[in-house]
Design goal:
Layout: E1 3-8, E2 11-16, H1 34-51, E3 55-59, H2 66-74, E4 78-85, H3 88-100, E5 106-110, H4 113-119, E6 126-129, H5 139-145, E7 151-156, H6 159-162, H7 168-174, H8 184-202, E8 205-215, E9 218-227, H9 229-236, E10 239-244, E11 251-255, E12 273-279, H10 286-295, H11 304-317, E13 325-326, H12 327-334, H13 341-350, E14 355-358, E15 361-367, H14 371-382
Parallel strand pairs: 3-4, 3-6, 4-5, 6-7
Antiparallel strand pairs: 1-2, 7-9, 8-9, 10-11, 10-12, 13-15, 14-15
Helix pairs in contact: 1-2, 1-10, 4-5, 5-8, 8-9, 10-11, 13-14
The structure holds S-adenosylmethionine.
S-adenosylmethionine binds near residues 63, 87, 112 and 131.
Length: about 400
């Protein structure tokens, strides 16, 4: 295998030569995921600060070992990192990379993630799941493994299933109906979180979501896991369904596994599209995000500006309602061209409603303003009855 060296964060890593990023490469390495790794370093660093003791991390899908190496080198208070991978070439290159960086607190093991997780229950404070495609077949062992108070970091790259391009794979992997709407990435994350919550619940565990995001081709969720049957039951109350009207864009949220779901939109009579079960609870912890932003000063990250931007966007939308509106979609329905989004947002704020952008979509607005009022407001701005014309 021909290789070359790259530098990322504070580590130097040997990676295979490649023409294009592919799961078929002898060892997988994707330079585009540097932002993902920078975010992971930032979140785990803040988690470590919050719990205020040294931590042990399991990077279950190590590849070149870049994640495990960075966690060891860049996060103060990391006592031990275990890196696993089933691919012997990955294990070899990861072991070499630990030597290259002088990291004697990192061990690399050739093993299946499920076996490692099931046979080391309660050993790790942080479990990082970064597989090819779906994490679904690793969720049960992750749930069994993670110790109470531990942090789970879970990636999914099967966004076409989670976001509703294909329905059958989402049924198979997550037991959920996705929905191809303008907010399908948010629904996708909520389907993923509901699936994690159900797997945790089997082990009488539940998760407080600290941070989640959908970026490029992947989604990632970070949550602190706790234990207790009563709190687990209460946590499952956050699972429900969204009924979306494809005609007028009205939505309804129903909590529970078997809620009574109206078949048609009460506003226009169109048949609803139903998505779920999905997580209708919070998908960000605003205070945690603020602390993470503040502690970024102590980290050396190449993508720090992008990390800060994403954290800032999620901070702004953290306490908003479930789902958002796309100004272009509304204007298309109204058969008008779109006014400036900032003019619309200013007026929503003037009227005292929650309003933020969303990191999920450039033209998205997260607000609790009733849809009818929002549509009228957009028309009024367009007709210069309010604000400025673009
Ligand atoms: C997406 S890559 C990981 C990339 C790496 N985390 C990074 O940031 O560069 C997935 C890795 O998981 C490994 N893998 C696939 N199935 C596995 C399994 N069942 N258990 C452990 N590792 C597995 C693959 O060999 C591959 O190296």
């Amino acid at each position: 295998m021909d290789t070359h060296y790259i530098e990322e964060g504070l580590v130097k890593i040997e990676v295979p030569d490649f023409e294009k990023v592919s799961a078929k490469a002898p060892v997988f390495y994707n330079p585009v995921m540097e932002l993902n790794r920078d975010i992971s370093v930032s979140i785990i660093n803040q988690y470590r600060r919050d719990i205020d003791h040294d931590i042990k991390i399991f990077d279950a899908f190590g590849g070149t070992g870049i994640r495990g190496a960075r966690y060891s080198k860049e996060i103060p208070g990391v006592e031990e990192v275990t890196v696993g991978d089933v691919n012997p070439c990955a294990v070899k290159i990861a072991q070499d990379n630990m030597k290259l960086n002088g990291l004697d607190n990192v061990t690399v093991e050739k093993n299946d993630a499920n076996i490692m997780l099931q046979s080391n229950k309660g050993l790790f404070d942080v479990v990082d799941i970064d597989p090819f495609g779906t994490p679904s077949m690793f969720l049960q062992s992750t749930a069994a493994n993670i110790r109470p108070g531990g942090l789970i970091c879970i990636s999914a790259t099967d966004t076409s299933a989670l976001c509703g391009t294909y329905h059958d794979p989402c049924f198979r992997k997550y037991g959920a109906q996705p929905q191809k709407t303008e907010y399908c990435h948010e629904n996708g994350i909520r389907i993923l979180i509901a699936s994690i919550a159900r797997n945790l619940a089997v082990n009488q565990k539940y998760m407080e979501v600290l941070f989640s995001h959908s970026t490029e081709h992947y989604m990632r969720v970070y949550g602190i896991v706790k234990r207790g049957s009563k709190k687990t039951n209460e946590s499952l109350d956050n699972i429900g369904f969204i009924a979306h009207c494809p005609n007028c864009l009205h939505r309804e949220y129903s909590y529970g596994y078997a809620p009574h779901l109206p078949e048609c939109c009460p506003e226009c009579g169109e048949k609803y599209d139903i998505a779920g079960p999905l997580w209708l609870g919070s998908i960000w912890d605003k205070d945690f995000i603020k602390r993470t932003m503040d502690s970024l000063v102590e980290l050396k990250l190449n993508k720090k500006d992008e990390v800060l931007k994403l954290l800032g966007q999620c901070y702004d939308e953290a306490e908003g309602p479930v789902s958002f509106y796309d100004i272009h979609k509304i204007c298309k329905k109204l058969k008008i061209s779109s006014p400036k989004i900032n003019d619309v947002m200013d007026e929503i704020a003037n009227r005292g409603y929650f309003i933020s952008r969303t990191h999920f979509k450039l033209t998205g607005m997260r607000t609790d303003m009733p849809l009818d009022e929002l549509k009228q407001l957009i028309k009024d701005i367009k007709e210069e009855k309010l604000g400025s014309e673009n």
